[in-house]
Specification:
7-stranded mixed sheet, 4-stranded antiparallel sheet, 0% helix, globular
């Protein structure tokens, strides 16, 4: 059974940081593409960052470039998204996708 579980969301002020985690089980962590996506109210879901675990290649949306870092831990099968210098427009539900499987999401709210 595949399980993808996000955590680490919360409320922060602009300029703050959060680290999201995505615990993965039941699917290979070692040779697949994993990604973080987000969906703000009234907007379409968009990809924020991806990580190809086999090659280590990463990619970021223009909004995330330079502020967010995606990484993975092979020892714990956990995907991370470190988010720094958060802005109000980063407010959204954040989702992890692993091999086509999705988690339930974790809410990030950035406000003063």
């Amino acid at each position: 059974q595949v399980k993808v579980v996000e955590s680490g969301g919360g409320s922060v002020q602009p300029g703050g940081s959060l680290r999201l985690s995505c615990a993965v089980s039941g699917v290979s962590f070692h040779t697949t593409t994993m990604s973080w996506h987000r969906q703000a109210p009234g907007k379409a879901r968009e990809m924020v960052a991806y990580w190809e675990s086999g090659s280590g290649a990463t990619g970021y949306s223009p909004a995330a470039q330079g502020r967010f870092t995606i990484s993975g831990d092979f020892a714990t099968d956990t995907l991370y998204l470190q988010m720094n210098n958060l802005r109000t427009e980063d407010t959204a539900e954040y989702f992890c996708s692993v091999g086509g499987h999705w988690g339930q999401g974790t809410q990030v709210t950035v406000s003063s």
